[in-house]
Write a structure and sequence with these properties.
98 residues
Length: 98
C-alpha cells in the first residue's frame, strides 16, 4: 500500500469518525433526561473513543499527506474540524441543559 492510498483511507476515516462522533452526541439528545453518572452521558464513552481514534488518524493523515497540493489535504481536515466542533459544542450545550 503506497502513501497516496494510505492518505486516501485516512481522509475517509477522518470524515467518517468525526461525523460518527457528531451522530453519537446528537443521538444522546433523544434520550430522556436522567440523573448523571459522574457528570457523563450514556454515549460519552463512544464519543471519547471515536475522538481518541480520530487523533491517531489525524497523525497518519498528516504524515502521509501530499503537501504539493495543500487544497487536497485541507478538505478532509476542514470537514473533520467542523463536525468535531459541532459535536463538542452540542455536548457542552447538552451538559448545561441537563
Amino acid at each position: 500500500m503506497d502513501l497516496h492510498h494510505t492518505n486516501d483511507l485516512a481522509g475517509v476515516a477522518l470524515v467518517v469518525l468525526s461525523f460518527f462522533a457528531l451522530g453519537v452526541v446528537l443521538a444522546d439528545f433523544r434520550q430522556p433526561a436522567r440523573a448523571p453518572v459522574k457528570g457523563k452521558q450514556r454515549a460519552s464513552p463512544l464519543f471519547e473513543m471515536s475522538v481518541l481514534v480520530l487523533c491517531v488518524v489525524v497523525v497518519v493523515f498528516l504524515a502521509t499527506a501530499d503537501w504539493h497540493s495543500p487544497q487536497r489535504a485541507a478538505r478532509p481536515l476542514a470537514y473533520c474540524g467542523l463536525a468535531i466542533a459541532a459535536a463538542l459544542g452540542a455536548q457542552t450545550w447538552q451538559r448545561e441543559l441537563r
